[in-house]
Sequence to fold (164 residues):
Amino acid sequence: MLKVQEIREIIKLIDQSSITEFTYETNGTSVSLKKESAGTATVSAQPAANQQVRVAEEKPQAQIPVESDPSESVPANETTSNADYDYEIVSPMVGTFYTASSPENDPYVSTGSSVKPDTVVCIVEAMKLFNEIEAEVSGEIVEILAENGQLVEYGQPLFRVKKK
Fold:
């Protein structure tokens, strides 16, 4: 099965290309991605037990313009308009947000924590799978936007980071 990061990369590549439909099948499981009208995408996963899960997500309507050098690649969830933070770590899926690997353990990060791109900042549990979410940037956590045990949506900001 594909990892969450691999699925995110595939979504980015398809979004930037003219491909409108993509299907990947392995070991009785298939993942299908289909671009619909402008700004919407549908992701569906078909487990071997013929149980289908479908997630449709619209991109936010209001976009804050970001001024940058055209040679730089700026992720869609990055903004330079706020002095307190300049990057948001967003949920890659719908699921339950957890700050630690178990209730007895300390949270992965807290406000003021330094993170690197591969630092695990939380877990999002979806369909009994616990997905570790990485920071993807180097910096300092300046705000935690979700509560432990809270249901989060695809693309929902979870953390704000001041990049170093």
Summary: The longest helix spans residues 4-16. The domain at 87-163 is CATH 2.40.50.100 (OB fold (Dihydrolipoamide Acetyltransferase, E2P)). The longest strand covers residues 29-35. The helical segments are 4-16.
